[in-house]
Amino acid sequence: MRQICLLGLLLVFFGCSSSGDDDTPSVDSSNPDNIQFGIIPCDNGMAGDFPCSGYDLLARLTLTQLSATSANDIWGWTDGSTNNEYALVGLDNGTAFVDITDDENPIYLGKLPTATSLSPWRDVKIYQDYAFIVAEASGHGMQIFDLTKLRNVSDPPQTFTADQRYTGIGNAHNIVINETMGFAYPVGTARNDAFNGGVHFINIQDPLNPTAAGGYGADGYSHDAQVISYTGPDADYSGKEIFIGANEDQIAIVDITDKANPTRISTLNYNQLSYTHQGWFTEDQRYFLLGDELDERDFGFNSRTLVFDLQDLDNPVLHTTYTGPTAAIDHNGYVLGDEFFLANYSAGIRVLDISQIGSEIITETGFFDTFPSNNATSFDGAWSVYPYFDSGKILINDINSGLFVIKKSN
Question: In sequence order, which residues have a C-beta less than 8 Å from that of residue 343 and are 6 or more positions away?
Fold first, then answer.
């Protein structure tokens, strides 16, 4: 089990998580406490105090403004009735909700406090108009929050309460949701639970009445994962529901279509493996882009993204490797079209053109650095990124500095 405790985490959280994660935040109290209003264009490589290339800063809410000590994961929600866009901001003490619809007037609406204790690890995903939230906090379970409550918030910021809480799990590091199927998949739960810290299956088709539907733990602890309804090139699995887990020391590919009988398809690893952390499919489901969180630290090379060819799910192979321009640790990355948006800790977010990935050509086309102090191999800076708003706005959650909203320069 890996456990890394930096001084900042010790001071704030009095110890390490028992889950074996290495997403260790540190604390920076030097940030201003005001909301930044109005666009700051990326001009001559800077947007105010932040290095950039091709992306403007629209808004920023600091940890002080959000009444938190550190930030972690992030997701977004678009209200189908109003088309308003919201940031769902993971924090050590809960989940904040920010209306980012108006570029000139982001509104911090309030916070859903953690269900039990503080945790530097929190994750949120959505299904229909509900947020599903897990944390590494002991006994936290899965909070369920009706996001339509955000439409009419008087006198913000408010303190919200959960509409439901599922306690069939305790702590969990991440949560995956397949919106097509209406199932939630908490991962990184207790290592001694029924599924060895692997993945739990939860039916959320009736969002406020979640029900357990089994799980899979034959390949051990799952740190993070993606679950897809498969439409990729391997005809053997067409129409199946596929789980692909980053399981610390391997990738596990599992057919979970039959919840009562999940079956391993294949597992794989790679050279200079240190901590298999998180990955995402290309939209054609041919390639899988993977980040190893500790390889930069342990082997001394620049940010590395491994690309696997999954044309044959039974026999995946390493296709190519992309090496970034800095020594910063890669963390969470997401694909949108022909672009890969990578939260790269101290180097901020990096945007990669993957339109020629089949030819082993990957090119950085832009970045926004939320941690301007340095690009060191450290657990500081951008934790995660959300690039899926129709407006083109992109959310970044920075461990040390809080929420950033950016957009591609005109």
Answer: 330, 331, 332, 333, 349, 382, 383, 384, 385, 396
- Take residue 255 and report the two structure tokens written for it: 């057919």
- Written as one letter, the residue type at 218 is A
What does DSSP assign to residue 40? B
Contacts of 178-182 spanning 24+ positions with Cβ under 8 A = 178/227, 178/228, 178/229, 178/241, 179/126, 179/127, 179/128, 180/229, 181/229, 181/241, 182/127
How far apart CA 248 and CA 197 sit, in angstroms, is 11
Name the residue among 23, 205, 216 with its Cα closest to residue 123. Answer: 23
- Per-residue pLDDT 10s for the chain (410 aa) are 333 333 333 333 333 333 344 444 443 433 334 566 679 999 999 999 999 999 999 999 999 999 999 999 999 999 999 999 999 999 999 999 999 999 888 999 999 999 999 999 999 999 999 999 999 999 999 999 999 999 999 999 999 999 999 999 999 999 999 999 999 999 999 999 999 999 999 999 999 999 999 999 999 999 999 999 999 999 999 999 999 999 999 999 999 999 999 999 999 999 999 999 999 999 999 999 999 999 999 999 999 999 999 999 999 999 999 999 999 999 999 999 999 999 999 999 999 999 999 999 999 999 999 999 999 999 999 999 999 999 999 999 999 999 999 999 99
| CA-based nearest residue to 313, from 234, 256, 245 | 234
Residue 200, phi-psi category: left (phi > 0), alpha (psi -120 to 50), beta (remainder): beta
- DSSP string over 100-128: -SSTT--EEEEEEE-SSS--S-EEEEEET
Q: Quick check: 291 and 324 in contact, CB under 8 A?
A: no
As to burial, measured by CB atoms within 10 angstroms (0-12 exposed, 13-18 middle, 19+ buried), residue 208 is: exposed
What is the distance between the alpha carbons of residues 91 and 113, in angstroms, rounded to a whole number? Answer: 9
DSSP β-bridge partners for residue 57: 40, 406
Which distant-in-sequence residues (6+ apart) come within 8 Å of 54 by Cβ? Answer: 42, 351, 365, 366, 367, 408, 409
Residue 235: count other Cβ atoms within 10 Å of its Cβ.
7
